Amino acid sequence: MKQTRVNVVLDKGFIDQKKYVVYWMQQAQRIEYNHALSYAIEEANKYKLPLLVIFVINPSFPGANARHFTFMLEGIQELKNRFHLMGITFIIKVGPIVDSISPYLHDAISLIMDYGYLKIQKKWREDVLADVQENHHINAVIVETDLVVSFATTTNKLMYSARTIRPLLHKLYLDYCHDYQEIELEHKTLLPFTGDTDLVDISDFIQKNNIDRSVFPSAIYHGGYQEAVKTLNRFICTRLHYYHLSSDPSNSFTSTLSMYLHFGQISTIEIINTVTDSALVYGIPQSNIDQFIEQILVRRELAFNFVSYQPEYDSFEFCTDKWAYETMQVHLYDEREYIYTIKDYEEFKTHDKYFNAAMKEMVYTGFMHNYMRMYWAKKIVEWSHSYISAYETIKYLNDKYFIDGRDPNSYAGIAWIFGKHDRAWTERPIFGKLRYMNANGLKRKFDIDEYVKKCDKYLKK
Ligand SMILES: Cc1cc2nc3c(=O)[nH]c(=O)nc-3n(C[C@H](O)[C@H](O)[C@H](O)COP(=O)(O)OP(=O)(O)OC[C@H]3O[C@@H](n4cnc5c(N)ncnc54)[C@H](O)[C@@H]3O)c2cc1C
Q1: Which end of the chain has fewer CB atoms within 10 angstroms, the N or the C?
Q2: pLDDT (tens digit, 9 = 90+) per residue, 85-102?
């Protein structure tokens, strides 16, 4: 494994009388291509000890609702059985992170954590490490596994655009795609721990733990590694061939893998390797593979670069560049022809049938096509009193309804609406030099009424 993925925070070596190794699984909710799990297995083999994997459910995670929890817990449910078969003890705890993990650290020789890129994830790791320093004698290691190339290896700077990060990633990614090795646990002793729930019935769990049920689980998208693999295979067999047409929202040629990536239920490395290996078998044009790699590698890792090097990635004041703030300042008081409320959006009550269709896709399925995400958010800018209120509305709806919400891609995608990673365009009202999108563009480029019909059908399901 590349050492650039590994951060040994506390190295105490062999410690006598310890009984197992702990892996606190958080960002990488999978077994396959999980470098943190592999590291934990290697550590257990090195010390000839069994492995305990802990997953903590925090029912009061800010903004998370039944839709997000259901998708995530479908994946966790699947892991439970698979870990058992591998001879690895897997427990699910419910509550605050440190209180849930700390009792298991006294007898552990090492604590392995996967890396999390967002503020809340970094804070959790800091809190766990503070507890470890204060109360435990243990090795502690953080392993980064959710990007193809570990973020600090690509660059130690905030990148200006895809153009600047692309050559750096292209130089490194193939080497990183082939650096994973599956390792088997040698001491398959199951430990006598049961955790707080065995998660037999997810909807019962959601109800009993007072999780916000105002947004219902998606009837279309289901979580877990098996579903992710099914989605990947369907993409390769039926969609990748048409990926050059994937910007058209009226067809479904994108992968819809973003939600699985968000919860770490599948690795980008597995996706890229499977896609490239299958290309020959299915006769996929190289240009389509390249286009897909541009999204899953360049665009995605640019978003992770943004949240890694812009500490205030989720605030309007720090989301974009000087030229964009300057142009917005000039157009702050331009007259807005329409002003809508969040309720209007949620009830599909704007005058724009394409926007309303996009809202239906979002509210009913938990997903939205990339082109419509751009159009949808640009319209909210056009119909809001101020840029900052538009930013807050977009973020609110994005994170409430999308299964893949609250992701580095969410913050970079929203920032892009306000000029980040983009360039200046011809000046016009309200948008200034920010890129503008309109319904005529949709009609000109796509059979957009097909998209409207498709979204109307979600209502009837
Ligand atoms: C306003 C706005 C909000 C967005 N909110 C989110 C969000 O909450 N969560 C989220 O994951 N993505 C978000 N995106 C980025 C993008 O729209 C989605 O990642 C993409 O639509 C997911 O669909 P897919 O998996 O079928 O993509 P595919 O075309 O199959 O692409 C494969 C993968 O590449 C990555 N990717 C694709 N497009 C982009 C992009 N523009 N930027 C970064 N990575 C990309 C994703 O990981 C995606 O799963 C947002 C974009 C905008 C403009």
Answers
A1: C
A2: 999 999 999 999 999 999
